[in-house]
Amino acid sequence: MKSFEESIEVVDLKNANYFAADLFNECFRSPFPIPQDYLGLVHNSESGTWHQFVAFYKWTEATIEPVGFCNWIRHRDVYLEGGMCVRQNFYRRLPKEHWVQCKRMGGIAQLLMEAAAKTLNDTEAWFGYCGDKKAYAVDMRVGYRPTRHPFLIVKWFRDVSQSRQEELEDEIALLGPF
User: Fold this and answer.
1) Full DSSP string of 31-97
2) What is d(CA 87, CA 80) in angstroms, rounded to the nearest whole number?
3) What pTM does this model have?
4) Which of 120, 21, 122 is nearest to 69 (CA)?
5) Is the C-alpha dihedral spanning 105, 109, 114, 119 positive or negative?
């Protein structure tokens, strides 16, 4: 059997609807976030304003399943992260050795964020909205911190003055949940 690391792949797509719409619906019972103008933010597919990361798990040589998804939208000099979801029964179906390896690596949500951080680190910060305790714990492990706004969290990628941090936090809070 291949290792868990050999069986999991995280991919950045411009539009992951084909691969992740059913996963997103399973988790949120809402339509998939199609890259488009959103919250007054203009979408340009050529400039990379939307990034949709999908984690694929290879069960066999012929069976590959999308098991995780997350969306990043570029807004000026930050990314808005949202829609993080993991296939609800994925961990229960994993072979025990792979479950142990996956857990050691932090789980699918953490793997998605770590993969995204390798390429989406060209801004001052990432912002997210989080009200789920398990998701919050993962977010904190990958470097997010709470803000003074309820549910709004931030992961800084640059040294930013306290006044700039507060300015960005207030600006993003005005957008509402994303």
Assistant:
1) ----SS-BTTBPP-TTTT-EEEEEEEEEEETTEEEEEEEEEEEEETTEEEEEEEEE-TTHHHHS-HH
2) 22
3) 0.92
4) 21
5) positive
pLDDT per residue as tens digits for the range 15-45: 999 999 999 999 999 989 886 656 565 655 5
The token pair that represents 82 in the structure block:
């949202």
Q: What phi and psi values does residue 103 have, to the nearest 5 degrees?
A: -60, -40
Residue 28, sorted as left (phi over 0), alpha (psi -120 to 50) or beta, turns out to be alpha
Residue 112 contacts residue 68 (beta carbons within 8 Å)? yes
CATH of 4-175, one of 2.30.38.10, 3.40.630.30, 3.40.50.150, 2.60.40.10: 3.40.630.30
Tokens representing residue 129 in the block:
């909205």
How far, in whole angstroms, is CA 171 from its chain's centroid? 21
